[in-house]
Amino acid sequence: MIPEFIVLALFAGLAVAMVAGPLGCFVVWRRMAYFGDTLAHSALLGVSFGWLFDININIAVTCGCLILALLLVMAQQKRFLATDTLLGILSHATLALGLVIAATQSDYRLDITAYLFGDLLAVEWVDAITIGAISVLVLLVIVALWRPMLAITVDEDLAHVENVPVFWVRASLMLLMALVIAIAMKVVGVLLITALLIIPAATSRKLSKTPEQMAIFASLLGMTSVIGGLTASYFWDSPAGPSIVLCAAILFLLSLAAKEHC
Question: Which parts of the chain span the membrane according to its record (predicted)?
């Protein structure tokens, strides 16, 4: 009989991979990897504020990611600084501030390793239900906004001419990424979240002919990586989060090899 903690971990991992696939496609298409890193680093800052003010960690992380995503959207509108420069500043500043706050909690110190690399095998029923509910919500929004998000990805100026609300669609995409990054922290950790978004999408890009195919394949490849990573973790006692990312990387290399022989 499969242990309950494996079932919960599998459910949570599959739910995150299911929505990380389509969002990862937009990350690849729009070259937003640095944006994903910035949000991921802000997740650790949310953890630290949760400790500091005795707030539920999941709520603190989610609020932190959403607030930073909104700030980035507004900052991009102002264009007072190049986007990559702004992301570089915020990414490292939020990570450094989170680490400093965590290190100075003398009366309430916790090991941050689980937050950096994930702690999927420690998922509880509440975590699994929360991750599942948010994943379904994000997936429904992606389906509803798929064509507008695709339009602004192809050409924002043309989308504006076609009466697509570019600002709000872009803001929605960033907020969806923030939500997924917040829930993915439990699965693969702050340092590996962006990899779960990018690698399955990059792999599916070589196997797909349409954007819709790429999104579906990215989800399936991400879910396959979760299953493979958890299997490796269960039998060889390897860390679950890094094992999942390693499986995704192996699938990417196999896709390259398959492409070479076709």
Answer: 6-29, 49-74, 86-104, 125-146, 173-202, 214-234, 240-258
